[in-house]
Amino acid sequence: MCDEHRTEAAPELSVARRRVRPRPSRPAEARQAVERAVSERCRATHTPCDAQALSDALLVASELTTNAILHGGGMTDFRVTVEGRGVCVSVSDRSAALPVAKAPVDPQGRWRPGGHGWPIVCRLARDVRVTDLPSGGKCITAVVPLS
């Protein structure tokens, strides 16, 4: 897991968050929602969007949604907000299992496909939190710097 990882009970949200409707059900839709949120923020603040930072945020959204679909029993919620100098991506799924990074080779020494998503999220995000949900499952929130 990420070194910055923390597990906690679901907090009360003090920051107004934009709920994406309809909720993305595929990684491509999650990327579109992130791109839209970041672009709207850049237009509203009259600041240029950092292409590399946006690319990082899109990759994190894609990896979190893919992991929820493949390993978490499907996405149950998706939220994206731009707060300060970062984009906050939250993906909820049905599984309470914590994410893990898999070794790149199996016990027989063969290279494994996949297993890179969680390390990518941990590398690109400045803060990653895994929160247990009262109804079961978890929410993973990653904040990716925008500059």
Automatic annotation (TrEMBL):
Domain Histidine kinase/HSP90-like ATPase intervals: 25-142
TM ranges: none
A Pfam family reported for this protein in Swiss-Prot or TrEMBL: HATPase_c_2
Keywords noted in UniProt: Kinase, Serine/threonine-protein kinase, Transferase
Positions of the UniProt region annotated as Disordered: 1-32
InterPro entries: Anti-sigma-factor_SerPK, HATPase_C_sf, HATPase_dom
GO molecular-function term, one example from the UniProt record: protein serine/threonine kinase activity
Protein name as it appears in the record: Histidine kinase/HSP90-like ATPase domain-containing protein
Organism ancestry: Bacteria, Bacillati, Actinomycetota, Actinomycetes, Kitasatosporales
